[in-house]
Amino acid sequence: MLSKVLRCSQFYPGRQQASVLLCQQAFKPTYAYRRLRYSSTTHSISSSSLPSRLNPPVSTRPPPLEAPTRTSDQSAPSYYFQLGRAYLTFYKTGLKAVYTNFQISRSLLSRLPSSTTLPLAVSGGLISRAELQLIKRSRHDVARIPLFALVVMVCGEFTPLVVLFIAGVVPGTCRIPKQIQGSREKLEERRRRSFREGTLDSRNAGDRSVKDLEKNEIMHVGRSLGLYSSLWDQSRDAGLVGFPLGLLRGRVSREVVALEMDDYAIKRDGGVGGMDSEEVRIAAEARGLDVLGKNDGQLKKLLNAWLQAKEAHSITKLLLTRPSVWQKE
Predict the structure, then answer these.
(1) pTM for this structure?
(2) How far is 233 from 277, CA to CA, in rounded Å?
(3) What is the dihedral of CA 227, 229, 230, 235, to 10 degrees?
(4) Nearest in space to 186 (alpha carbons), one of 286, 300, 290, 321
(5) What is the pLDDT of residues 14-32, one digit of tens each?
(6) 120, 228, 240, 300: which has the fewest C-beta neighbours closer than 10 Å?
(7) Cα end-to-end distance, the chain, whole Å
(8) Among 166, 184, 165, which residue's Cα sits nearest to residue 225?
(9) How far apart are CA 275 and CA 284, in angstroms?
């Protein structure tokens, strides 16, 4: 079944069509996801039909991984067979979610006027924060299905081990807990190193647009948000080519626009206090804020501080400085 995505990608100009074909042929949505999908298309988009206007549905996040615990009298083959089944169930559920989210996202976008962009739809109240995040995460996941399918084909039962080293090819709904934890640890260490070893001057980090940022500032934001692989830094340090600056500036620009939309939607649709624990963690991480070792209360306070500082400063300044700087202002 996974081989079909490789064949169909030869006939479709975009990866999205191939991705959806794979999910559509291989998996049918579960009852819970079908009910969510159908309920999301029966009402006007202006009166959000998702369970919450603030928090996107759980189908946009990885499902629980119910890994078995090996008993003292259980043989190794029996245990690893059960473990393999648990991972298979996890990945199947995650791929079902990708297809379900794509269907909901497509329905939401089809109801917007053809000339309406996402920023206009958010500012005009046409879509909620929950719908905005669903659309964004669906686009991210659908684009990764073909390469992820190839990894599964090649690696088979070793996929859970391999994906720990290639997090960028895994759809968000298929990321195992160990992978999420490892990615966060690496990103936060990379962010600390960038602040420590960079040439940024926090005192002079004024409110500027992305196009006015200097090269070292663009590179710092890219590292802090994980917008490009750390292998590019290693390549540059070795005297080879680094990540293309123009391409990175475009990525940073798009990310700033996405954060602008999300900041506005959070405040409009209920505020940080109404956000789920994991949503607060995801939102903080998306803004270059450290989340490891912090409880829900600390993260909500930090995210609220970001939104308050945003009223006086640009997002670029907040991304170029530590919270200890803009929390005092």
Answers:
(1) 0.82
(2) 33
(3) -120
(4) 290
(5) 444 444 444 444 444 433 3
(6) 240
(7) 56
(8) 184
(9) 12
The answer, yes or no, to whether residue 49 has pLDDT greater than 90, is: no
3-state helix, strand, coil in the chain (%, to 5): 65, 0, 35
Q: What angle do CA 120, 59, 153 make, to 5 degrees?
A: 110
pLDDT above 50 (res 250): yes
CA atoms lying within 13 Å on the CB side of residue 62:
19
Question: Of the candidates 54, 21, 49, which has an alpha carbon nearest to the alpha carbon of residue 108?
Answer: 49
List CB contacts of 128: < 8 A, sequence separation 6 or more. Answer: 48, 50, 53, 54, 265, 269
Structure tokens at 297: 């209360």
Q: What is the dihedral of CA 278, 119, 134, 17, to 10 degrees?
A: -140
How far is Cα 103 from Cα 27, in angstroms, rounded to an integer? Answer: 13
